[in-house]
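Renewal narrative, Specific Aim 1. Our central claim is that a sequence can be written position by position from structural information alone. The example that follows is taken directly from our test logs and has not been curated for this report. It begins with the structure tokens describing the chain, in the order in which they were read.
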């Protein structure tokens, strides 16, 4: 094949630039490759029968170095090639079938007046050009640069397409390397970018005999019969593509042992909704294999089967009675189904999409013996499972079905709304699926076009080159509102609002604000109690304020560093008035307050809160206070009958532990009749 080096020209990109174009150094290279290559294949298969699958096959094998030297020897430093690869190298072949292949003109001179460049020119010779339709995966045309980062920078494109005259095969090679490297493979280059193609011009070779000869040297098979598709072959594969598992206390999971296993799990991680799922609603579903072994739905890791099931429930294509969650015994009460509504954003109704979430136990995730399935955090983030509560895991996607990212943030502005997880050890997995056809109201002020734009198109424009996040364009707040609504729903799912706790502080704040801004006279009472009644004197008896059982009210809160300062009011009560009253401290949870004893039984570590510095305002000397870290006992001398209507007020401090985890929990104080100290006092 003939060698063509890209000369240095004005505004010309270089190889060093292209290798960094994605600006993503956090995501493992194999994950980037799987995301880009599978999405390219799915885009190329959009015109087929929706009921059929797009097949994507990954093959990893060794190849002779001579296959590279004999085919691409022109322009290469063969001595440097042998020096850099003293052992037999490996290659990665990504092969899609049932797709349209690399169609379109092969030279820029052949581009027609309509400007349709086609798949071939976009993938092989262009950078930064992409499909313009909203439903396509790419939006920048830079994702393909991840191919050059997998090995020495050499990528071979082979495709078979259908034309008006029959079928045509195309093969071309491309090399992108850092032009400043002292051990670069090209003999002479100013840009680090080159191609190998036909001898008469800079385009692919089309002679079937020559193409099959090159494929045979690399161990690849040609497309035959009526099949069309594309094979991307990356030889001279790097040896360090597996991410480092740096958890010292745990053994690396099985998929960290080989490229084949890691690619298998990466396909599940990013395409769980579309993989082996005939009910996928956004187009043809995905059928994937690694080294000839097909990835079937029933073989997917449990967390990804859960994610697929949430997708199916969001689109309503599968009867939930027989889906994966139902077979694992997940009840309807453990599944959140919420339509996310936005105001003043859409032309029609305000639905931005569907949120589905599930609270699922380790047993339902097959984590118990004998299955011993890996935990969700290990499958998704590659990190050892933390102790309960487990952080909620949220993913979201557009119509192509690729998970944009997996997020486990417990920030109040994140997708989970600050919910920190269930203390009983259940996992929360959530998925948001947008209503792609929704039409946004045009608004130049919000950064949107004056013409109508779909939600799918807007979200596509919010993705950066690596498609790893949604970031609102300047002036737009659609993603921000969606995230806030999802966060509110998930927080309520994990911690349902308690009116008795939330109403009082909000009403009290409203009244305090009213006292500040309204006149002192002329507006009447606030309607709380009808006629004004005489207030009980703090520290003295008043039978008019007597209550059957002890009652504790928090009057005021203020926050200091790692401390909550509370002002409280205690009504003594008429039940067993001679016994002391005990102010208790618990941790709030969705199942009710967790006492220190239950906290210790659950082996959750040190109790996260401590009571400190209790005081009683205007208290007589007969009132005694006994302080402990998790309770305060208030006692009066026996035989005192005036305490039937006694009202006490005081202050105390709730000290939070130094760990970050305690800041995510909420303390609850209450009062009860003390039975432990009654006999002694």
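The sequence written for that structure reads:
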């Amino acid at each position: 094949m003939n060698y063509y080096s890209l000369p240095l020209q004005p505004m010309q990109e270089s190889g060093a630039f292209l290798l960094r174009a994605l600006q993503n150094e956090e995501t493992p290279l194999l994950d980037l490759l799987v995301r880009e290559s599978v999405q390219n294949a799915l885009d190329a298969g959009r015109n087929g029968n929706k009921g059929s699958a797009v097949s994507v096959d990954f093959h990893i094998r060794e190849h002779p170095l001579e296959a590279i030297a004999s085919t691409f020897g022109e322009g290469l430093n063969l001595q440097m090639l042998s020096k850099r690869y003293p052992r037999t190298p490996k290659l990665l072949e990504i092969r899609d079938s049932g797709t349209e292949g690399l169609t379109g003109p092969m030279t820029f001179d052949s581009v027609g007046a309509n400007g349709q460049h086609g798949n071939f020119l976009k993938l092989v010779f262009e950078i930064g050009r992409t499909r313009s339709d909203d439903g396509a995966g790419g939006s920048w045309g830079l994702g393909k640069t991840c191919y050059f980062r997998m090995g020495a920078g050499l990528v071979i494109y082979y495709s078979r397409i259908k034309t008006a005259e029959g079928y045509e095969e195309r093969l071309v090679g491309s090399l992108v390397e850092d032009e400043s490297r002292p051990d670069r493979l090209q003999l002479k280059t100013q840009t680090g970018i080159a191609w190998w193609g036909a001898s008469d011009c800079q385009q692919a070779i089309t002679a079937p005999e020559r193409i099959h000869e090159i494929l045979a040297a690399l161990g690849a098979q040609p497309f035959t019969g009526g099949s069309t598709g594309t094979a991307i072959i990356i030889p001279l594969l790097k040896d360090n593509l597996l991410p480092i598992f740096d958890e010292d206390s745990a053994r690396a999971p099985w998929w960290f042992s080989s490229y084949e296993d890691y690619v298998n799990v990466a396909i599940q991680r990013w395409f769980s909704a579309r993989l082996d799922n005939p009910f996928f609603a956004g187009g043809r579903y995905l059928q994937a294999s690694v080294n000839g072994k097909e990835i079937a739905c029933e073989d997917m890791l449990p967390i990804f089967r859960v994610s697929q099931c949430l997708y199916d429930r969001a689109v309503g294509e599968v009867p939930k009675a027989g889906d994966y969650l139902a077979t694992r015994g997940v009840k309807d009460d453990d599944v959140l189904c919420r339509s996310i509504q936005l105001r003043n954003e859409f032309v029609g109704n305000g639905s931005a999409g569907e949120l589905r979430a599930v609270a699922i136990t380790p047993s339902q995730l097959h984590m118990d013996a004998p299955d011993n399935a890996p935990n969700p955090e290990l499958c998704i983030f590659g990190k050892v499972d933390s102790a309960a509560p487990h952080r909620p895991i949220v993913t979201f996607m557009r119509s192509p079905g690729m998970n944009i990212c997996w997020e486990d943030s417990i920030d109040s502005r994140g997708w989970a709304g600050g919910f920190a997880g269930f203390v009983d050890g259940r996992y929360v997995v959530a998925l948001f699926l947008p209503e792609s056809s929704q039409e946004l109201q045009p608004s130049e002020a919000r950064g949107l076009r004056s013409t109508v734009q779909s939600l799918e198109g807007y979200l596509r424009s919010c993705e950066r080159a690596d498609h790893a996040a949604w970031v609102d364009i300047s002036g737009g707040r659609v993603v921000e509102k969606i995230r806030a609504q999802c966060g509110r729903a998930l927080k309520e799912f994990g911690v349902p609002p308690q009116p008795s706790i939330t109403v009082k502080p909000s009403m009290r704040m409203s009244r305090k604000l009213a006292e500040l801004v309204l006149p002192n006279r002329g507006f009447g009472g606030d309607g709380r109690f009808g006629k004004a009644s005489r207030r009980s004197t703090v520290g003295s008896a008043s039978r008019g304020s007597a209550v059957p059982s002890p009652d504790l009210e928090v009057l005021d809160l203020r926050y200091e560093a790692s401390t909550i300062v509370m002002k409280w009011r205690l009504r003594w009560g008429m039940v067993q008035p001679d016994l002391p009253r005990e102010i208790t401290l618990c941790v709030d949870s969705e199942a009710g307050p967790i006492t220190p004893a239950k906290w210790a039984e659950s082996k959750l570590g040190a109790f996260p809160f401590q009571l400190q510095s209790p005081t009683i305002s205007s208290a007589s000397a007969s009132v005694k206070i006994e302080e402990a870290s998790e309770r305060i006992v208030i006692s009066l001398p026996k035989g005192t009958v005036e305490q039937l209507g006694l009202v006490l007020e005081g202050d105390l401090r709730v000290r939070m532990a130094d760990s970050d985890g305690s800041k995510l929990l909420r303390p609850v104080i209450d009062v009860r009749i003390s039975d432990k100290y009654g006999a002694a006092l």
